[in-house]
Design brief:
binds zinc ion, alpha/beta, globular, 7-stranded mixed sheet, 2 domains, Metallo-beta-lactamase, Chain A, Rossmann fold
Length: about 475
């Protein structure tokens, strides 16, 4: 008998932590951060105390109670602080491997707390993305996976850093008597995988996050076909876009994003600003292509450039730093003088050494010829508007999902205040979801034709129940399914 326990993310969008056990082996599929649950306690300036290791998160129920799973330093610290719930750190590893579907933090971030010797399997592209984001970003205790400080060690003696073992799974990984096959699927980040598990107990399919209306729908179609061939006992499927009818919004494909944005590019005389998720390199390619056909120079941040450069090894169609239409925005740092010494982080130095000087643009370069450019700015880059000073006739294209939570809505109002101040209001909204729409999800289930359907990553699992009846098992966190 095999079993699956849904530790988190059953009836929430993200925070996915799915435990699967066969007679011989135990795995986790994803180990993400549950933003909604975390947001019940924390906000921007109220965060878990790093100095308490995993203690704060554990006390609030934001990480599950499992012995032999978390880093020894974190468990020892909790133990010293009076809780033996997670043991004392000397426990044997209780899980054999973690399979990570993709590089979004709601699936990956809490890998940072797992035991260092626990192997993580995912695509080489996901590894490249997570690593590049960690090197070029400002990672926190809650999402630092590659190089972390051990906790509970006096700072003066804490020199050696820990890291996790990431292994690239390109197709099959055999562990014990259990085969885990990862297949590329189309999602709003490259490198996403869907999984098929085959064991003597039966077969289980986990979709991760996926869609059929993106640029690479053939990947999702191939995964569905491979899944169908295994005649699975259980299909664990996402349902992000399931909503009761009154909430259903217009649904765009990536091609429609291109077509709608094309009209905006065509009619804009002055500066164009594009705002999309940094990991969504499909969207970057869409805006790059639009810039090419409308004769604009496409300007990206150094962070975007670093990510593209690191992805290039595993993703063939990634544009290189030498792409003639790509230019790079040089923000002012520290001294405000663009002095070389201001760009001292290792990744920046490496990158700047490889970018030709004439492709590095300061705010004044863009301001002088604003009609020639389409530049990428995000919410946290809005201050750059003060230097860019776009004139009337400029456009702001917001190209990520609309605000859901109260906090996101407050941020959106802030964004609009900036845009009003700088001739960019009202903004345009063009976006294609990273997740399949209802009809496509139903098509995927029909094709795969499993015995049991388990919805996850959704707030409306009952919509699967209405469609597929008794075959659907609605689970809550900590529920178990046997196969
Ligand atoms: Zn997700
Ligand atoms: Zn995702």
């Amino acid at each position: 008998m095999g079993r699956i326990i849904f530790f988190d993310g059953a009836q929430a969008i993200g925070g996915t932590k799915i435990f699967l056990e066969t007679s011989y082996k135990k795995f986790f599929f994803d180990f993400g951060l549950n933003y909604k649950q975390r947001g019940m306690y924390y906000e921007e300036f109220l965060n878990p105390r790093v100095a308490n290791g995993i203690g704060d998160l554990y006390s609030l129920g934001l990480v599950p109670l499992i012995k032999g799973l978390y880093r020894k330093d974190l468990v020892e610290m909790l133990n010293k602080n009076g809780s033996a719930d997670l043991g004392d750190g000397s426990e044997e590893l209780s899980v054999d491997a973690v399979f990570l579907s993709h590089a979004h933090f709601d699936h990956s971030a809490y890998i940072s707390f797992l035991r260092e010797e626990l192997p993580i399997y995912t695509s080489s592209t996901t590894i490249a993305i997570l690593k590049a984001m960690e090197e070029s970003g400002n990672p926190t205790f809650e999402n630092k996976m590659f190089e972390f400080k051990r906790r509970g060690v006096p700072s003066s003696k804490n020199e050696e850093k820990g890291t996790h073992i990431f292994n690239a799974i390109e197709n099959t990984e055999v562990i014990g008597n259990t085969y885990v096959l990862g297949f590329p699927v189309d999602h709003s980040v490259r490198g996403a995988l869907g999984f098929v598990v085959e064991s003597s107990e039966g077969s289980v399919v986990y979709t991760g996050d996926l869609r059929l209306h993106g640029k690479r729908s053939e990947e999702t179609i191939n995964f569905v076909e491979e899944a169908r061939k295994r005649k699975p006992d259980v299909l664990v499927i996402e349902g992000t876009n399931l909503r009761q009818d009154s909430e259903v919004k217009e649904f765009w494909t990536e091609q429609q994003v291109f077509d709608e944005a094309y009209k905006i590019f065509k009619k804009t005389q002055k500066l164009i600003i594009t705002d999309f998720s940094i990991r969504d390199t499909d969207r970057l390619l869409t805006f790059l292509a639009l810039s090419k056909v409308t004769g604009r120079k496409f300007v990206i941040s150094l962070k975007d450039a670093y990510l593209l450069d690191k992805m290039k090894e595993s993703v063939m169609d990634t544009p290189g730093l030498d792409d003639p239409n790509i230019f790079f925005y040089l923000e002012k740092h520290e001294s405000g003088t663009y002095d070389e010494a201001d760009y001292k982080r290792k990744w920046m130095k490496e990158l700047l050494a490889r970018i030709p000087k004439n492709k590095l643009l300061k705010a004044e370069d863009i301001r002088a010829n604003e009609g020639e450019f389409a530049i990428t700015l995000r919410f946290f880059d809005l201050q750059e508007l003060i230097d860019l000073r776009p004139s009337k006739g400029s456009s702001y294209i917001h190209s990520s999902s609309e605000a859901h939570s109260e906090e996101q809505k407050i941020d959106e109002r802030r964004m609009d205040n900036w845009l009003q101040k700088f001739n960019l209001y009202p903004r345009f909204h063009v976006h294609a979801s990273g997740h399949a729409k209802k009809e496509d999800l139903f098509k995927i289930v029909d094709e795969i034709n499993p015995k049991v359907i388990v919805p996850v990553h959704t707030e409306h699992p009952e919509i699967y129940l209405e469609q597929f009846g008794k075959r659907v098992k609605i689970v809550k966190n900590l529920d178990k399914i046997e196969f």
